[in-house]
């Protein structure tokens, strides 16, 4: 039916011996680092024409590895690709879990993870627990998250212990907090509130990300639209610390006022509308196998082919989450958690 050749997976590319071609690829892969660097030389738009040609060429192998995003599933089940074994995460080792989940992914490496949702938690599944593991044979645990019960807005605690999700526990690593409408979220680390921090703010909490779900005029008939704001990176590849003294200086307000110094703005990749299936589609390279409104990819507008993060359903309560530099595990997990929250104003 759809018989065009499939795009090659990342794992196939990584497993090839280093040839002249692969060396050239490695050289070009250093480009993403400059996209996220702030405070230095400004990025240049040299590759716009090249990107357009690349997108056109990639469309040849689009369908076999494509995932339907928002569809009437009963009409197009036959077009969903056959389930294939997901390419596992490359070998990743670390000695300190807390340090690893807060460090940006190593450049050139895609960290492939799996999110599972356990609805057996509090109040008949209203407050499920979410777990993040490396998607490999060992299924190494990374993070757990759960919405706090007594909170006026959606407020998720993130922990490095699967059984300890208490605010005061030593395993608390960060949190995700929404506005009243559930359309804007802020991700914090586990340091002190500004009111309790030192005058120089050296021990104050950092804002690691902000997620904005834009109003969707098509409602359930159109895909979600997301903006993700993250701190930029310095020339050493380290995250620029953002420690606001108040909410009036946080990532959301800075983005609203277009004060983007030391910040990076990312967006979800716009799905392509396909007339024959009457659906929006994206290429997940075999990592997503079920249709869902929650499926998305996050990109920088300067390079739509560099997927900073992708997230999608593989079972009723299982999802793949893959992230790359400059994101860390806490940022990526929190972005995924925000997608589970109901958004009345957006859909």
UniProtKB/TrEMBL annotation:
Residues 102-341 form the Tubby C-terminal domain. PROSITE patterns: TUB_2. InterPro entries: Tubby-like_C, Tubby_C, Tubby_C_CS. One of its GO terms (biological process) is protein localization to cilium. Residues 1-21, 40-52 have a biased composition (Basic and acidic residues). SUPFAM superfamilies: Tubby C-terminal domain-like. Gene3D superfamilies: Tubby Protein, Chain A (3.20.90.10). GO terms for molecular function: actin filament binding. It is found in: Cytoplasm. This is Tubby-related protein 1-like. It comes from Sinocyclocheilus rhinocerous. The gene is LOC107744370.
